[in-house]
Amino acid sequence: MFYFNVYALIGLIIMVAALLLTRRWKDNKRVLLLLFNLGFLLVFNYKLFFFYLAYTLLNYGLYRMLCAVQKARAVWFVTWIVLNIALVSLVRFIEYGWWQHPIADFLVTLGLIYNVLKVIDALYFAYFFGPKGRIPALDYFNFILFIPTFTSGPILKFREFIADCQKPYQVNATQVEDSVKRIILGLFKAVVLVVWMQTIFDHVLSGELYFYHSLFLFAWFYLFIYVNFSGYSDIAIGFGRLFGYQVPENFKKPFLSPSLTQFWRNWHASLGDWFRDHIFMFFSRKAPSKPTAAALSLLIMTLIGLWHGYTWPYFLYGVYHGIIMACENLFGWTLVNKKKVSKWYYAFRCSLTQVLVGFSVIVYTNDMTTILKIFRGLLSFPSF
């Protein structure tokens, strides 16, 4: 992660200072941002720089072609998306050791699972807007290579980012203060709290586990994931706003979600929004029937699971969430109006949602041995 590198943080701060000093230059936040994005990647890792230079150039060419082509637009649209997904799959195969090739040594694809979603979002824009959707290469490169959200999101929306590009750089003292506070909070979460929480998790995990240990680890790791990921999001949002761009919120009080459907609108919200916008809304333009909504929810959550990793735990994680959300759609449990139900019922639904989520996020340990040990601990009871 860039934010763990003190030189990367210094570079981000210097970029903010340069933007503030050149605020009277109309295109400062566009031109300086491109120079910063490319320079940052080159200094960080030259292989990463050349990979993303080629990847972004290729996709910008495909984007411009889709804007201009008149015949078989849908075929080209689907083909470009499939090619990008195939590249991500290839990278997954290399990561897991399923495919070995000398070219793998040159593939430094840090952040690709986030950036491919941005590429696909841009292709959607080109497909639906045609020639009117053309934008300069400068803005496209900045969208894909935007350093504050490069490795961990939140996931930028193409249309909103391009709209920000057209606005002059305007960051006042209050916005600077709020953004700096957000960055400090994020660093405190991602550096101080995460290290402390990881130490406690490892300590408990290292011993023999009984059911109460496992219950603690489920809850503790759930909080750990929230603190870690929300910390990265805070830093990205803070620097993004100092750069003159609005980065979407990623966490919207997820612990107060009374259903899993609402949970995924509040937890990693930019990811849930992306899949809802590009799959749910694409296949169901009008208000869907309950069976259709249920089937799409299962599909979307399965894809979100696979997006995290091509492993059985992530696949089952997605299916598990998808089945629950499908049931919520079928039985009309997706939304709970806080004003129309009792406080006790609302609290019960929120608590139930957290329990259902808490038993599944343990897959983010990405270690099957750890996952199985914690689940086995639920069946172990001390002798008295």
Encode the helix/strand succession as letters: HHHHHHHHHHHHHHH
Task: State the distance separating the first and last CA atoms.
Answer: 47 Å
Based on CA atoms alone, the radius of gyration comes out at 22 Å
Please, how many domains?
A: 2
Ranges where pLDDT stays below 50 over 5 or more residues in a row are none
If you average the pLDDT, what whole number results?
A: 90
| Largest pleated sheet | none
Number of strands: 0
Q: Please estimate the helix content.
A: 55-70%
Shape: globular
Portion in beta strands: under 5%
The number of distinct helices, counting runs of at least 4 residues, comes to 15
Question: Structural class of the secondary elements?
Answer: mainly alpha
Description:
By secondary structure, the protein is an all-alpha fold. The protein has two domains: 2-165, no CATH class; 184-377, no CATH class. The protein has 15 helices and no strands. The chain has helices spanning 6-21, 28-44, 46-68, 73-95, 112-129, 137-145, 158-165, 173-206, 211-242, 260-266, 269-283, 290-308, 312-331, 343-358, 368-377. The model has no long low-confidence stretch (mean pLDDT 90).
Topology (SSEs and partners):
Elements lengths: L5 H16 L6 H17 L1 H23 L4 H23 L16 H18 L7 H9 L12 H8 L7 H34 L4 H32 L17 H7 L2 H15 L6 H19 L3 H20 L11 H16 L9 H10 L7
Short description:
This protein is mostly helical and about 375 residues long. The protein has helices at about 5-20, 30-45, 45-70, 75-95, 110-130, 135-145, 160-165, 175-205, 210-240, 260-265, 270-285, 290-310, 310-330, 345-360, 370-375. The protein folds into two domains: about 1-165, no CATH class; about 185-375, no CATH class.
